[in-house]
Amino acid sequence: MIDTFFSRLPRPSSEGGFTLFEVLIAAVVLVIGLVGLFGLLDTSVKATAATRAREGATNLARQILEDARTIPYAQISPNSIVSELQAMNGLANTSSGPEWQVVQRGITFTVTAKACSIDDPKDGYGKHVNSLGENPFCKDPGEQEWTSGEATFDATPEDLKRITVDVKWTAQGRSPDVHEVETLSAAGEAPGLNAAGLHLETPTVPTPTEPVITEASTGTLTFAVSAPTGTVAMRWSLEGTAQTPAPELKSGTTWTFSWSIPYPAVSDGTYEVSAQAIDATGVDGPPVSIPVKLIRGVPAAVTGLQGGFNEVYVSGVKKRVVEMEWRANTERNVIGYRVRNSTKELVCPATEATLSTALSCIQFENLPLLASPGIYSVAALYRNASGVVQEGTPGILTLVGGPPAPNAPTGLELEKNAEGAVVLKWKKPAAGGEPVKFYRIYRGSTDYTSRYGVSAEATFTDADAVTEHCYWVTAVDANLTESTFLGPKCG
After folding, report:
1. How far apart are the C-alpha atoms of 295 and 210, rounded to whole Å?
2. What pTM value is reported for the model?
3. What pLDDT, on the 0 to 100 scale, is given for residue 444?
4. Candidates 2.60.40.10, 1.10.418.10, 1.20.1250.20, 3.40.190.10; CATH matching 196-294
């Protein structure tokens, strides 16, 4: 049609090309086409953004419901479901206000999560409202509650739990919402009653839910915990072991119990204190726990110190060393040991930044002379109330150039028993040498790194001997000085 119109227009006989009118008409047609194209692009972009936002909201709602499955059934309640979910990875609240907001894909989603219980009528109805007027059950149409005088009473009405999640976001001219619902069952687990709010009541400390006790004069700790209506008794445990006396109802829903911590009879360290509610049917609810840290003194001096000069092989080369051993401290707060020489220089471990719980030390360099005594101190390490590593009271070991090494054992024999283990047997050293405290077994080589085991008797069983190995045996005295090697014996 446009072409026909242009064909009827008079054209100047003396000039070629388009007239101004023709150009204007063409421009109008082009603009109309571009406007339509940009409109389509704008509509496409908006549709893509809306689809992206809805996919993000759907994925977030499903993630929340999947994460809710990891929460213990007994801990799902209307009052705690939001905080339980917000503590999970990727679900933290990014809003400074009361709303729960999560940012994903550059979009801010507002989340609402609710939990409620369901009373299945198949086993009758129970009480839904407690003495405090709280009703954790879902407000479903036709919901019924047991009333006095009815024949069938469900003592455990909480048969299922329902979690509802709504995810909303901002869109122009509308308020989109993704709504997801999940129903959970106890799956054979007894729901029990949820205790909560366990804390140290006395003495007063800055953080009662993670108390740190630093006064040695503190003899008793008193804890308080809240349990819901229906709790007939409670149990408290220390490191998972039930303790006595049992908690007592103080008032309302608050129960209290005490733990005696005389010093030093109760070692310093971190303990887990927990409490559980018990319902009328004797079912224990899930435990609520808090850590209690006792830092009232320093670890006791290391005991059982023994040591002396010895000769060991290092990569096949004999080397004179000083060896020491000691007994482990029984305090729970001991995190390692440090060995120092007479000038307070660190011998073991290699650096002060290293925390080693090894109960032995070998000094290869800067050894004391045989003619002069070597004085060593071994101290247990602990953390003070500020978390700084400190040394406890040291144990002292004095080395002197003592008697010669014990005589070597003789007659090493090897046999494999029916179970495939290797049994080593030897004869005790001849009389006249230093008394033997124990025997040391080497496997694979005579280097000190090949020390494999010890035995107080003249026999040793290697139960881990799938392939063939070679063995050596030495006699060791009270100063940790070794005899010459007996062996090898291979098999």
Report:
1. 13
2. 0.58
3. 96
4. 2.60.40.10
